[in-house]
Amino acid sequence: MREKTERIVREWGDACDAEISIAVLGGAWKPSILSLLGEHEVLRFGELSRLLDEPTARVLTRQLRELEDDGLITREVYRQVPPKVEYRLSDLGLGSMPLIDALTAWGGQYAATQRSALDAAAPPASHKTPA
Amino acid sequence: MREKTERIVREWGDACDAEISIAVLGGAWKPSILSLLGEHEVLRFGELSRLLDEPTARVLTRQLRELEDDGLITREVYRQVPPKVEYRLSDLGLGSMPLIDALTAWGGQYAATQRSALDAAAPPASHKTPA
DNA sequence: CGGGATCCGTTTCGATACTG
DNA sequence: CAGTATCGAAACGGATCCCG
């Protein structure tokens, strides 16, 4: 597993298990990567890149490596020209789907309530709002 | 709400709602703060500091402000000497409890499996392990 | 007691250019 | 196609000192 994750798993008390989840799932694009692999079963590097908002290869590669090091996804390399690499969820990754879904659901609700608050403060030219 | 959160809520597509949750809940100590407020109902600054592992006041203050700005907790100041400040969960914060619990549960499970893996690699002087 | 101000090291993200 | 190497900018957590 990642050095960072190992440190956390070793040193932290049980009081903050939630922060372990965030340490593992909380990188840029990571929840989206896991969701996409949950939907599509298997995706190649380029497919993932296109389905996300085309992050730089450097960034996407690192997130994928971290997820692999933490045991959530598997990486299969086909030694051929042109190269081909397939990513899938591992069992651990599959087990994270309910949590990912919960994060998605709460985040969506939260965003909805907050957008209402924002719109109330600065109405977006909708019905009944004074011009 | 926090500028960062507002940016995310405004700009991000619905594809990555999970990352909204992580943006809101993912700071240092934040899940622990929310858990503690869930258990204790109301806590003062110093009580929180002691229940956590005594983070620096600077850090704790900022996490609390961010949670307040994002609408998850409330802050009540008693203008007296010595000062007294009480923190509680808001309705939004209460609504995050199931998610916090889910994060805690998954993180705990994950840590357990990973610790097993670590122990298998480097056994900690337990039964049957060669000296 | 509950912070604010200042400073600093690390981590992290992202852009650009290059490669087997 | 699926990366790697190098660089820069910013965010973040933390230590230290000071204050009403």
TrEMBL record, chains A, B:
Keyword match Chaperone: no
One Pfam family of this chain: HxlR
UniProt-recorded Gene Ontology molecular function terms: DNA binding
UniProt keyword terms in alphabetical order: DNA-binding, Transcription, Transcription regulation
Range of residues in the leader sequence: none
SUPFAM superfamilies named in the record: Winged helix' DNA-binding domain
Superkingdom of this protein's organism: Bacteria
UniProt entry tagged with the keyword Manganese: no
Stretches assigned to the HTH hxlR-type domain: 16-115
Protein name: HTH-type transcriptional activator HxlR
Species the sequence originates in: Microbacterium hydrocarbonoxydans
Lineage: Bacteria, Bacillati, Actinomycetota, Actinomycetes, Micrococcales
Gene expressing this chain: hxlR_1
